[in-house]
Amino acid sequence: xxxxxxxxxxxxxxxxxxxxxxxxxxxxxxxxxxxxxxxxxxxxxxxxxxxxxxxxxxxxxxxxxxxxxxxxxxxxxxxxxxxxxxxxxxxxxxxxxxxxxxxxxxxxxxxxxxxxxxxxxxxxxxxxxxxxxxxxxxxxxxxxxxxxxxxxxxxxxxxxxxxxxxxxxxxxxxxxxxxxxxxxxxxxxxxxxxxxxxxxxxxxxxxxxxxxxxxxxxxxxxxxxxxxxxxxxxxxxxxxxxxxxxxxxxxxxxxxxxxxxxxxxxxxxxxxxxxxxxxxxxxxxxxxxxxxxxxxxxxxxxxxxxxxxxxx
Length: 312
Description:
The protein is α/β, with parallel strands linked by helices and 312 residues long. The chain has helices at 3-9, 25-34, 48-61, 80-90, 103-111, 123-132, 153-161, 177-185, 207-215, 236-241, 286-310; strands at 14-16, 37-41, 67-72, 94-98, 115-120, 136-140, 146-147, 167-171, 190-193, 221-224, 232-235. It holds the Pfam family NMO.
């Protein structure tokens, strides 16, 4: 698949971004059927055997819509080789790497004609990914849920476009169609949206998690590296519920992204969210979310065209 083929296949330039313990085959397939790019994080599967089942289920249920897999390429992920072998077997059109270099997946994914996109949080990592030969960058910016960046989405896109002419995806607090239109106008090809799809019927998030996202806003988020060893955005009430002081998380956590079977990580039951949670009012289906985004996107595009026309 080429960049142009991917973009033409989508109803909206939106990616239902991978979410830890939230994105399952139901959400990914529903996103594909609705016309956006759904992404399955392989770490959500407890074993390579389960991942095999999930990838098969997505391929069968996604219809003609494209879908993607998210692979953690950090050296602590001992299951990377097994997961990559399954990727080679099931051939998702897009593979997104995170928390490590994209180099370990390049030969395999390029070999079957897939696109490799590297998840990056700063320009240094973006340059390294471009040097590795990726087809695209997922620029995780300030406001993103889970592991987050610190650059403004607009500043990130502008800087990346100076060094890269490939597929550019940007995410960070974007939760409505107007934000999608703004990001595209600024130079992005696609927009990462995770939190916006968290409170959907197809999401694997606990009902209490979905309700917490509905009930709270950006002021209820805490960004800290004290949980996983990398900066991440957490729901304050979730931290409190687990006996943690959101204002005293420290910074001594060790990075460990092993997705093999073993003792649960201390952060596996904590709940993350991005600054876009203010747009979520109720639990709805993925299809309904995409319908709303499409209306908002076209309204914003029409407004931009009107302003541009008036300024001539």
